[in-house]
TrEMBL record, chain A:
GO terms for molecular function: RNA binding; structural constituent of ribosome. GO terms for biological process: translation. One of its GO terms (cellular component) is mitochondrion. Keywords: Ribonucleoprotein, Ribosomal protein. This is Putative ribosomal protein S13. InterPro entries: Rbsml_uS13_C, Ribosomal_uS13, Ribosomal_uS13-like_H2TH, Ribosomal_uS13_CS. The lineage of its organism: Eukaryota, Fungi, Dikarya, Ascomycota, Pezizomycotina. Belongs to the universal ribosomal protein uS13 family. The keyword Signal does not apply. The keyword Plastid does not apply. It comes from Choiromyces venosus 120613-1. SUPFAM superfamilies: S13-like H2TH domain.
UniProtKB/TrEMBL annotation, chain B:
It is found in: Mitochondrion. Residues 31-62 are annotated as: Disordered. The keyword Ribonucleoprotein applies. It comes from the Eukaryota. The keyword DNA damage does not apply. It comes from Choiromyces venosus 120613-1. This is Small ribosomal subunit protein mS29.
Length: 119, 464
C-alpha cells in the first residue's frame, strides 16, 4: 500500500486509475499529472519511486480536489440561497434549477439539489 | 346483372394436400358419440403382462429427484503476464508435419545469385545454442508467420535475399573507404505480406553464423506506444527508455555470447554516475553488469555502439522492424503536455543516426523494414519514393532527412520460379490438399498475385 494524498492505494493499481479515484480528477487531468512527472500509460503504483509519489501528492495539494472541491460547490449553492436568488431557492426546494418542467423526471434534481450536502 | 352462380361456390373445398410418398397425417374417424358420453381415457400404467406393483411404481415416481451437478474443476486464474506469453509464444516445429529434406542456409550462400529461387532450412547444430535459438532470442521470428505448420523453420531464397546478402558481402570484403570503414544502409520496402521481416531474419541468420554482433529492435511500435518507462536525459535532451534498453541488452547478450566475449574495451568508459570500466575488460562483462541495473543500461548500450565503431571490432548488424512507427509522433508526453516526437526518443534517434549515416560502425550494416500495419506516414512515403515535397503538403520535415542516403530495396512479389519452389515445399510438408500441377499452380499464383502471404492462404484453403 502506498500513501497518495492521504489515501492508501494498492500497489498493483495503475497510476492513472488511482489518480482518477479522487473527486475532481478525470482522464484529462490525470493525463496531465502523468505527463508532468513522465509516468507512462501502463505504470503501476509499485513502479513509482518514493520521491515521485511525494511529488504527485504535493502537486495534488495545490489543486482543488476531493473534499475541498465538494465544499466549494456547496458554498456556491449556499451563496445563491443567501442572496435570495431563484436558483438558490430551487436548490433549497430540491427542484430543477434551470427551467426544466417538473411534472415528471426530476429524480436527479430531488437527489442532488439540496442545501446541505454530505461532504 | 347478378350472376347465377355466386363466386364463393366456385371455390374448391379446403383439402389437406398430401404427398403421395409421405405418410398421411393421422385423422380422427367420424363418430356420432358426443364427447361427454365417451369412455374416460385409461390411466397410463404398466402393460397388462407386467408384474410390477402399481402402488410401488407410483411411490417411486413421486420421489423428488435432484439432478446431480457434474463436478467441474475450475480453471486456475491466469498469472500476471501468462496470457501475453501465450499470445506471443512462437512455435517453430510441428511433429505432425512431414519433414522435408532441404539444404542448409549456410554463410557460403551470402550474395550467391545462383541459389535464388530455392528453399533452405535454417541451420541447426547439435547441442549448445543453435542459430535458431539465437534468432529466437532476438525475436526475429514473429507469430503469424506460419511457422507452426512445418516440421522445421525453412525460408525461401529470393532475389531480394541476394540483394541483402550483397550488403553483408561488401562489408565482409571491405569494399569501402581506404581506412577500412564500411557501412551499408538499406530500407526494405514493399507491399503488405511481401516478406520484409523474413528478409531481416535471413540477414540475421547469416550475421550470426559469421559471428557478427547483431542488435535487433524487433518491433519499433513497442518504443512509441507509451508502454515503457521514459525519462529525460539532461545533456542530450533525448528521452531514455531504460526498461526497454535493459531488455534489448538482455537479448543482445543472449544472441551474441561468443562475439561479445572476444570483444575487449579499447579505452576506459564511465558506467552510470559512479562506476568506471577499465580498458581491456570484455564487453560481455559490461553488458552482464548493465542487465542487472536499468540505470546503467543506456550507458552500456552506448559503450557497445562506440566500441563497434573502433577499428578491430567485429562487424555489426543493426536492424529495426516497422520503421513507419517511428516516423510518427509517439504516445509519450513531455511535462508541458506536448506529444514527444519519436525522433526525440533516444533509441529510435540512435537507430536513425546510423541509418542516415550520422554515426557509423567500423564495419556494419544497418537495415530497416517498413510496415503496412501502421497509420499513414505520408512524409515517409514521400521520402521513400524520393519525390520532392510540395511545401503546401505540410509533411513532417524531420522524417525525410532521417533516412537520407539509405539504399531502398524494393521487395517485390514472388517470381514464378520462387512461387513454384514455395508451393512444392508446402506440398511436400503435407499442408496442400490439391495436387500440384501446372493448372493448380497457375490458378494459385494468379489468385495470390505472387504475394507470399496470400500464396500461403490460397494453398492452405481447400479448392471450392
Amino acid at each position: 500500500m502506498v500513501n497518495l494524498y492521504g489515501v492508501q492505494i494498492a500497489e498493483n493499481q495503475l497510476v492513472h486509475k488511482a489518480l482518477r479515484s479522487f473527486f475532481g480528477i478525470g482522464h484529462n487531468v490525470a493525463d496531465r499529472i502523468c505527463a508532468k512527472f513522465s509516468i507512462h500509460k501502463t505504470a503501476r503504483i509499485s513502479q513509482l519511486t518514493q520521491p515521485k509519489v511525494t511529488a504527485i501528492s504535493s502537486e495534488m495539494t495545490k489543486m482543488v480536489i476531493d473534499t475541498e472541491l465538494r465544499r466549494k460547490i456547496a458554498d456556491n449553492v449556499i451563496r445563491l440561497k443567501d442572496i435570495g436568488t431563484y436558483r438558490g431557492r430551487r436548490h433549497a426546494q430540491g427542484l430543477p434549477v434551470r427551467g426544466q418542467k417538473t411534472k415528471k423526471q426530476i429524480a436527479n434534481a430531488r437527489r442532488f439539489n439540496r442545501i446541505q450536502t454530505n461532504i | 346483372m347478378v350472376p347465377r352462380i355466386p363466386w364463393r361456390c366456385l371455390r374448391t373445398p379446403p383439402q389437406v394436400i398430401t404427398h403421395p410418398l409421405k405418410p398421411r397425417p393421422h385423422l380422427h374417424n367420424f363418430t356420432t358419440t358426443p364427447p361427454l358420453a365417451a369412455k374416460p381415457l385409461k390411466a397410463k400404467g404398466p402393460p397388462p403382462g407386467s408384474k410390477m406393483n402399481v402402488e410401488k411404481q407410483r411411490s417411486q415416481s413421486n420421489k423428488i429427484r435432484i439432478k446431480k451437478k457434474p463436478i467441474t474443476v475450475q480453471k486456475p486464474a491466469y498469472q500476471i503476464g501468462q496470457r501475453k506469453e501465450l499470445r506471443k509464444r512462437i512455435v517453430l516445429s510441428n511433429t505432425n508435419a512431414i519433414p522435408v529434406v532441404l539444404p542448409t542456409m549456410t554463410a557460403d550462400l551470402i550474395g550467391n545469385a545462383d541459389a535464388a529461387g530455392a528453399m533452405f532450412e535454417l541451420p541447426s547444430e547439435e547441442g549448445g545454442d543453435t542459430i535458431v535459438d539465437r534468432l529466437r532470442a532476438l525475436e526475429a521470428f514473429q507469430t503469424k508467420q506460419h511457422w507452426p505448420f512445418f516440421h522445421r523453420p525453412c525460408t525461401l531464397f529470393r532475389r531480394e535475399t541476394v540483394e541483402v546478402g550483397r550488403l553483408l558481402e561488401r562489408v565482409m570484403k571491405r569494399e569501402g573507404t581506404e581506412d577500412g570503414r564500411v557501412n551499408e544502409r538499406a530500407i526494405l520496402h514493399g507491399y503488405y505480406g511481401c516478406g520484409r521481416s523474413i528478409l531481416l531474419l535471413q540477414a540475421m541468420t547469416w550475421a550470426l553464423q559469421k559471428d557478427w554482433v547483431v542488435v535487433a529492435i524487433p518491433n519499433a511500435q513497442d518504443l512509441v506506444i507509451g508502454h515503457t518507462e521514459y525519462e529525460l536525459e539532461g545533456n542530450s535532451h533525448l528521452w531514455l527508455q531504460r526498461a526497454y534498453t535493459t531488455d534489448l541488452l538482455r537479448k543482445i547478450l543472449k544472441a551474441n555470447q561468443k562475439a561479445l566475449k572476444r570483444m575487449n574495451l579499447s579505452q576506459n568508459y564511465r558506467l552510470g554516475r559512479m562506476e568506471e570500466v577499465k580498458k581491456g575488460v570484455a564487453m560481455k562483462e559490461v553488458l552482464e553488469k548493465a542487465v542487472q541495473d536499468p540505470l546503467l543500461a543506456w550507458d552500456a548500450f552506448n559503450i557497445l555502439l562506440s566500441e563497434l565503431g573502433q577499428p578491430g571490432s567485429p562487424p555489426a548488424l543493426f536492424t529495426l522492424d516497422n520503421l513507419n512507427q517511428i516516423s510518427l509522433p509517439s504516445k509519450y508526453r513531455d511535462p508541458s503536455f506536448n506529444l514527444i516526437h519519436s525522433h526525440d526518443l533516444a533509441l529510435p534517434n540512435t537507430f536513425l543516426a546510423y541509418l542516415s549515416g550520422k554515426r557509423s560502425f567500423h564495419r556494419g550494416v544497418t537495415l530497416a523494414a517498413t510496415s503496412s500495419k501502421c497509420s499513414r506516414t505520408l512524409a515517409l512515403d514521400a521520402a521513400l519514393e524520393g519525390r520532392e515535397v510540395d511545401p503546401y503538403e505540410r509533411l513532417d520535415p524531420r522524417v525525410g532527412p532521417s533516412i537520407e542516403g539509405a539504399r531502398i530495396i524494393h521487395v517485390d512479389s514472388l517470381s514464378k520460379a520462387e512461387a513454384k519452389a514455395l508451393m512444392d515445399y508446402y506440398n511436400e510438408s503435407g499442408i496442400m490438399k490439391d495436387t500440384v500441377d501446372i493448372t493448380t499452380f497457375n490458378e494459385k499464383y494468379a489468385v495470390s498475385a505472387g504475394n507470399p502471404k496470400d500464396l500461403f492462404g490460397t494453398c492452405l484453403r481447400m479448392r471450392q
